[in-house]
Design brief:
This protein is mostly helical and 150 residues long. The chain has seven helices and two strands; from the N terminus they run αβαβααααα. The protein has one domain (17-148): Nucleotidyltransferase, domain 5 (2-Layer Sandwich).
């Protein structure tokens, strides 16, 4: 099922293999995916080699799909739609004085995407489409806050 649910993210200020490895480690914490799809960042292939083509994670091998429009002529619209939503929101927060708050805001944006807003193509909340029924009412944010404090 095509849910549009975001299951993980990693906020980084730099684009390097070490940060890419941190992201990739998070992507396998809840199980082995069939593949991990990334953009054409030059640091991803090296990070993949270091993590998945060695015995560092028990010899775990995962397919790496790279979406590079210049080479494949295929756009990565699904994830780019989410990234653009995040980028648009972050631009609104340009007055932030401390970078430590950026991951907190990212978490809030992901929660809003997964549990609050209907997705534009499915007209459903991604968590509901994925079968996660939290029984939240009209004021979804308030109900999520109440559920988190139990």
């Amino acid at each position: 099922m095509d849910t549009k649910l975001i299951t993980g993210f990693h906020y980084s200020l730099s684009a390097n293999p070490i940060e890419a490895q941190e992201f990739l480690k998070k992507s396998i914490q809840k199980g082995k995916p069939k593949y991990i799809q990334t953009d054409a960042g030059v640091f991803y292939p090296r990070a993949f080699r270091k993590l998945f083509y060695s015995n560092k994670l028990g010899g775990l091998t995962i397919e790496h799909k790279i979406q590079n429009y210049q080479k494949t002529r295929i756009h990565n619209y699904k994830i780019e739609t989410v990234f653009m939503k995040i980028k648009d929101r972050v631009i609104d927060f340009r007055g932030l004085k401390a970078l430590w708050s950026a991951p907190i805001l990212m978490t809030a944006i992901v929660i809003q995407h997964n549990f609050i807003e209907n997705h534009s193509t499915t007209d459903e909340v991604p968590s509901g489409r994925a079968g996660v029924n939290l029984e939240i009412g009209e004021n979804r944010w308030l109900d999520l806050i109440r559920r988190s404090s139990k």
